[in-house]
Amino acid sequence: MDVAPAPGAVIDRLRAAGCVFAEEEAELLLAATSSSAELEELVRRRVGGEPVEQLVGWVAFDGLRIALEPGVFVPRRRTELLAAEAAALLGPGSIVVDLCCGSGAVGAALLAREPDLLLHAADLDPAAVRCARRNLPGVPVHEGDLFGALPPDLRGRVDVLVANVPYVPTAAVALMPPEARDHEARMALDGGDDGLAVARRVVSGARGWLTAGGSVLFEAGETQVTGAVELVAGAGLRPRVVTDDERGGTVVVGRLGPS
Ligand SMILES: C[S@@+](CC[C@H](N)C(=O)[O-])C[C@H]1O[C@@H](n2cnc3c(N)ncnc32)[C@H](O)[C@@H]1O
């Protein structure tokens, strides 16, 4: 008979490995496996540093279950603020782009809130694009470098451009927990010297894609807000900053046109 280890034993091993949410993670691993051999394999990999979300193949985001694959950025809870702020700008028929879409979590959250969107998503990483296609059935998910991935006929027609760009300064990537540093694609984390390299490209390109009154939204670190606001203002967009202390998120919004 295949006897599963008692949850307590799994919790103890996870806790000893430094997993802060050992009880919750043990529950997820137990629910994701159907034999003690499978469970042992996942516990071993988790103790070795793999993110629990990649091991079980999904993550909860904004009330949705988002499929995940190894190597793909694990959507963070703080990014629910980005989704909420973008959603507040939408209406039926809005044209929306989820640039740097990763698993497609933000786009999926927007569609769940407003099903009548015209959504496009894009990412440079083929694994992310594959994953986003699973989470966004029926949505065109393009592969390529930022705006270069998008159909040119979207130019000047995008109401909301949401981009959870990588924004960790290059030197700080090595200081991230191993589950991020070793198991999420480098391009999902590294935002260049000041962390704003990709944001800079998104903001400077946004103007050509937004409709009059359209907005670009991206997440930034607390210490990057001043620089991010300067980027937005420098691109001729009206900046606004939203923070959420509970989720630890900061979102910078740039609107094209008068307020
Ligand atoms: C911080 S992750 C965010 C993923 C997803 N939006 C989320 O919130 O979970 C950043 C994403 O940007 C993508 N990326 C980085 N550089 C890119 C580029 N030049 N063009 C398109 N995507 C890029 C990465 O592959 C990664 O999926």
What report would you give on this structure?
- With 259 residues, this protein is α/β, with parallel strands linked by helices.
- It has two domains: 7-67, no CATH class; 79-255, Rossmann fold (3-Layer(aba) Sandwich), CATH 3.40.50.
- Helices cover 37% and strands 20% of the residues.
- Helix 1 crosses helix 2.
- The mean pLDDT is 95.
- S-adenosylmethionine (SAM) binds next to helix 6 and helix 10.
Largest sheet: 7 strands, mixed
* C-alpha-based Rg, rounded: 19 Å
Q: How many strands?
A: 9
Rounded mean pLDDT is 95
What helical percentage do the residues reach?
25-40%
Molecules bound to protein: S-adenosylmethionine
Query: Kindly, what is the distance between the CA atoms of the first and last residues, rounded to a whole number of angstroms?
Result: 68 Å
Structural class: alpha/beta
**Could you say which overall geometry the principal axes of the C-alpha atoms support?**
globular
Tally the structural domains.
2
> Could you name the CATH topology of the largest domain?
Rossmann fold
CATH class of the largest domain: Alpha Beta
Based on the coordinates given, report the CATH architecture of the largest domain. 3-Layer(aba) Sandwich
What's the name of the CATH homologous superfamily of the largest domain?
A: Vaccinia Virus protein VP39
Helix and strand run: HHHHEEHEHEHEEHHHHEHEE
Strand content: 15-25%
Strand order of the largest sheet: 5-4-3-6-7-9-8
